[in-house]
Amino acid sequence: MAGGSRSAKETIRQKIGAFDLEMKRLREEEERKALEEQQRLIEAQIAEAQKMIDDILGKTADIDETIELINMELKRDDLTEVERQKLETQLELSHAIKENNQEKVEELHARAAEPIFISPTLRPAVPDTKVKGASTRFELVPQVVNKVTLIKAVANGTVPDTVLDVNMGALKKYVNMMKRAIPGVTYTEQAVVSGRGR
Amino acid sequence: METNLATIEKELMKETDPVVKGAMALVVSTVAEKEIAASELNLINDLIKKVKETFEPIKQKARAAWQEAVDQRRRPLGRR
To answer: Least CB-CB distance to A8: which of B9, B24, B28?
Structure first.
């Protein structure tokens, strides 16, 4: 009787699990797309900032004038975070050139080559699916597709040996068939006596 | 005893059957449907508890009788 209830319980759990898994997949997909879009925007902003800097550098070769022009640009209210970071680095670089500080110039050139980090501002498009009375956790379900590769990984210590179980029935059959030593296996001999059963 | 069990089973089936049928037909494709499924799940949990609690004393009584028979057989045969 409870079997009906139990299988109904299992069915509901499966349905909720399938829904949550699908929502998780959609959420991750949305996050990936949003990150890609954000990255694309940042790259466009970097290109724009670089154009702004190139324009300044193209206007004058005088370092004091360059510094003044950069400072003027930095006063603008409509700068993006990326543009501000780029201009500030260029300003520091111009000061270092003016002070003839070669070490700092090199450091700033290296910094300018680094990717700009802007913390992602993600707005989840897929709603949270938490409800009262049912909680879901996600776990990975392994499937061995190459036993030998797994055994090698255990042998070289990258995977703990607790993940492997020895099939004692098959091992017993094998040693009795081969009657020879097997690496890592020792055995004792026992007498198996049969009688007629009643 | 048998008639009693049959009656108890019939009574419990009356309660569990519609819930099981409803659960099987459930579709979970929105958060609202998930909420319904979660409350169905809790309802089924309560029913399972009720079934277990109803049968537990009956099971215990039957098990004690079985154990007594096993012990009585073991005395002349000896332990295996």
So the answer is: B24
Distance from the A15 Cα atom to the nearest Cα atom in chain B, whole angstroms? 6
A20 and A109, same domain (yes or no):
yes
The owner of tokens 């030998």 is A148
Instruction: Enter the pTM of the model.
Output: 0.67
Q: How far, CA to CA in Å, does A130 sit from each of A99, A122, B32?
A: 59, 19, 10
Task: Tell me which of A113, A132, A160 is where a domain ends.
Answer: A113
**Long-range CB contacts for residues A41-46, cutoff 8 Å, separation at least 24:** A42/A82, A42/A116, A42/A118, A45/A80, A45/A82, A45/A83, A46/A82, A46/A86, A46/A116
Q: Which domain holds residue B70?
A: 2-77
- Give tens-digit pLDDT for A28-44: 999 899 889 988 988 88
Question: Looking at the 3D structure of chain B, how many domains does it have?
Answer: 1
**Complex ipTM more than 0.85, yes or no:** no
Query: Per the CB < 8 Å rule, is B19 touching A5?
Result: yes
Residue of A nearest to B43 (CA): A9
A8 near B CB under 8 A: yes
One-letter amino acid for residue B72 of the chain? Q
